[in-house]
Write a sequence for this structure.
């Protein structure tokens, strides 16, 4: 009888150490779930739009132009802007102060050029966001 109890204890201990079928199913299910959770963001990711120049005249959209194509755009017979190498610059204007021409070029990182007398606004849409959050170079 003593031997029988010992055999039962040994059998019980041996079965505790063995991986059972349900354990394998649980491990496999968790592995499958983790793979699915890793794949979902990759499949559903929205591809970023390429940045473009938005021209507004008197608050109304005049046109949208990709930054990938070099060109000169005449705006209402008063201003001319140039897209070259992914940068936008106002190259001529019939306004008296010429401040818009003196502005530095804007690119995919964003920016705005404004000609107040002619009510023209050049801005970049779908611009890349800086990695620093909402702070600009001055605030940092």
């Amino acid at each position: 009888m003593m031997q029988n109890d010992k055999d039962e204890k040994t059998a019980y201990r041996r079965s505790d150490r063995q991986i059972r079928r349900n354990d394998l199913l649980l491990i496999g299910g968790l592995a499958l779930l983790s793979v699915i959770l890793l794949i979902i963001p990759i499949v559903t990711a929205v591809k970023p739009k390429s940045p473009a120049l938005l021209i507004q005249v008197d608050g109304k959209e005049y046109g949208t132009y990709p930054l990938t194509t070099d060109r000169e755009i005449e705006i209402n017979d008063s201003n001319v802007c140039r897209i070259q190498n992914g940068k936008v610059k106002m190259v001529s204007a019939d306004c008296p102060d010429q401040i818009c021409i003196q502005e530095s070029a804007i690119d995919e990182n964003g920016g705005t050029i404004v000609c107040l007398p002619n009510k023209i606004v050049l801005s970049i849409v779908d611009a890349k966001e800086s990695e620093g959050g909402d702070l600009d170079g001055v605030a940092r």
Q: What stands out?
A: The CA atoms of residues 10 and 16 lie 10 Å apart.
